[in-house]
Amino acid sequence: MDTAPSRPNPSPTPSPTPSPTPSVRPLPTVAITGASGALGQALIKRWHSRGARLIALTHRPEGGEASRLQVLDSQGQLIPLRQVSWQCGKESELVPLLAEVDVLVLNHGLNQRGRRDLAALTLGLEVNALSHWRLLELFAQDVAKRGTKAEVWVNTSEAEIQPALSPIYEISKRLMGQMLSLRALDLASTPSLPGSEPRLRVRRLVLGPFRSELNPQGLMSADWVAGEIFRQVGWNCNLIIVSIFPTTYVLMPLASLSRWAYGRLFTRGAS
Questions:
Q1: Taking residues 63-88, what's their average pLDDT?
Q2: Other CB atoms closer than 10 Å to residue 177's CB: what's the count?
Q3: 71 phi/psi in degrees, rounded to 5
Q4: Residue 213, pLDDT score
């Protein structure tokens, strides 16, 4: 820190550590799917503390006090947010809203433990994989028309590579993870501008078992997981891992690297 020359040997005053922020404008508009869940609400609190304008995407019907999502900050005050109801399969209805968004957090999910019937498999694939993929593509298409940067955070879960004691959940999450790895080769690059930074930044959230309605026995708290996510965003990570299992920190980077190499070698982007 610079000091006045008339004051010899001053005691240095440490500068405050800045809060981790993504590579978009300082006060971004953030839309979060699965906003009413444990992690969704924890992420809302973290983004609110950073001054973000928040859009909560939920499956709750609009209208009425009972359907209103209410999240309190650390001071017990109601966090201002815009709540929007949406449905899987109707992602295109969100296109006008996505044009306002700087950071899209794809966080919704469904875990149907113990089931293997056709209806459960169909619903699991739709919610955990296909709806994520559609929103990712729609957002990427909008970002491609902009002159500003944007980010998408995709919660794929460590079920990509680890057992979750729920086969349909594992299948759907692994499908989403594979699609994300393949499409990120094009969506997170700017081939027309060699050496430039991509306009869309893709961050993959690989999260271990945290307590939520999907997993009441989770060993980590959703708030702690959200804090670790933002810590790694501050480290400029695209692959964000928060888990109690050491193997995930080894296997997931290897899986991501192998998928990247495999996709590069045996596929090509649109001309």
A1: 85
A2: 24
A3: -120, 130
A4: 77
Rg over CA atoms, the chain: 20
pTM reported for the whole predicted model: 0.86
Residue 104's Cβ-count burial label (10 Å; 0-12, 13-18, 19+) is: buried
Neighbouring residues of 95: CB distance < 8 A, sequence distance ≥ 6: 138, 142
In this prediction, residues 220-238 reach a mean pLDDT of: 95
Question: If we measure between CA atoms, which residue out of 258, 128, 103, 243 comes closest to residue 181?
Answer: 258
Domain ranges, ordered by start, for the chain: 29-266
pLDDT at 229: 97
Q: How many Cα atoms sit within 13 Å of 127 on the Cβ side?
A: 21
Which of these, 87, 22, 74, 80, lies nearest to 55 by C-alpha position?
Answer: 80
**How far apart (Å, rounded) are the C-alpha atoms in residues 211 and 179?**
27
29-266 carries CATH number 3.40.50.720: yes
Do the strands 150-155 and 29-33 form a parallel or antiparallel pair, or are they unpaired?
A: unpaired
Dump pLDDT digits (tens) for 117-132: 999 999 999 999 999 9
Count of beta carbons in the 10 Å neighbourhood of residue 155: 25
Residue 169 bears catalytic tag: yes
Q: Which residue has the tokens 């953030």?
A: 30
Catalytic-labelled residue, pool 47, 169, 210, 230: 169
- Reported as a pLDDT band with limits 50, 70 and 90, residue 64 is low
Rounded distance between C-alpha atoms, residue 234 and residue 227, angstroms:
11
